[in-house]
Design brief:
DHBP synthase, 8 helices, 3-stranded mixed sheet, globular, alpha/beta
């Protein structure tokens, strides 16, 4: 796990890391460090108004950074870890730069051993695809844009990923914000738990 330790050290020192998930490769930085988050936006050439999600190793850890309703908590325990991002009210520790000034933040608990090893060592980290905005998501380290590769202090190679992005859901609004993996199961849950 030498690479994971190196990646965790990089994140703790404000640098960027590319890491695999069960969907696509992510670009990770300390999700509570405004300067590190700015480096993510710069590397991706992403507009600052677009929010970035955060990743944690377990649902229980998520509750350190968000105020979830009972219904949201039940949903999170059912779908996470997994290819779903849940948008929940953020706590004060989560910087506005991460959420584009919004009061809600996307939470991800990847169902990938390498990602969770990194998260156990250095969570919360940013959960955003490791690509330049507008370009396709990356499913293998060899496909990383040179700008992303040069911005990252460490690239964790977890082999080829599935390639379908996570489903993004706002449980409080009963709304799927982005279609991705498990979208049908998410919709069915929202209907069954009204």
């Amino acid at each position: 796990m030498h690479d994971v330790e190196q990646a965790a050290d990089a994140i703790r020192s404000g640098r960027l890391v590319v890491y695999p998930t069960e969907t696509v490769y992510g670009l990770g930085a300390d999700a509570l460090d405004e300067a590190a988050i700015e480096r993510v936006f710069a590397a991706k050439r992403r507009v600052r108004e677009e929010p970035i999600s955060l990743a944690v190793p377990t649902v229980d850890r998520a509750f350190e950074y968000v105020d979830a309703t009972d219904r949201e908590s039940t949903f999170m325990r059912e779908f996470l870890p997994g290819p779903v991002t849940v948008v929940v009210a953020k706590r004060a520790a989560v910087p506005d730069v991460l959420t584009g000034g919004r009061q809600r933040v996307g939470v991800r608990v990847p169902d990938h051993d390498l990602a969770r090893s990194l998260l156990h060592a250095a969570a919360p980290i940013t959960a955003t695809s490791a690509n330049v905005s507008g370009n396709p998501s990356v499913t293998a380290p060899d496909d990383l844009d040179p700008a992303i590769r040069s911005a990252a202090a460490v690239v964790l190679d977890g082999g080829e990923t599935a390639g379908t992005a996570s489903t993004v859901v706002d449980v409080s609004a009963d709304e799927v914000l982005r279609e991705g993996r498990d979208a049908d199961a998410v919709r069915a849950w929202l209907t069954d738990h009204r």
